[in-house]
Predict the structure.
Amino acid sequence: MLYLVIIVAILLLASGIHQYFNVDKNLKIPSITYFAIGFVLYIVAILLYRTELLDSSTIIHEILLTTIFGLIIFWINSHRNKTSDTSYYTIIIVILTIVLAMLPLTPTLIISLQMMYIVRFIFSVILLIVGVFVLYKRIKGKVSESFPLLYLMAFIYWIAIAYWF
């Protein structure tokens, strides 16, 4: 349940970022609405596991890790489409990774270590599927660019933070 709420929240936040900077420069209400709903969902996720937050930082660790995963997916998409929000995703990913590195990972009763590794593996497979899609688009397109290298670096970055922290 936690991962599902966080994935929906990051989808709304990233959609808000994309709309705010790329879609309509005059109409900002939908993007602000997406931001607000996304932040409310983060609060809901924290409140669902409030008793665990007082004892352990594992829930916050998993929330940050899932958020970074979602932002990496949106970073890849924004870079592939050459939109202006790529730098914002990069800054947010770096800041959240620094916070993630400072949080200790302790055992918890709500989320087991096996479940955490299963979710990380599923996220890695999803990112690999995104990579296959990116390579397919790259091979199908006639324009030569260094995007597959950037995807590879994003995939290595995800593997490093998912299994190291």
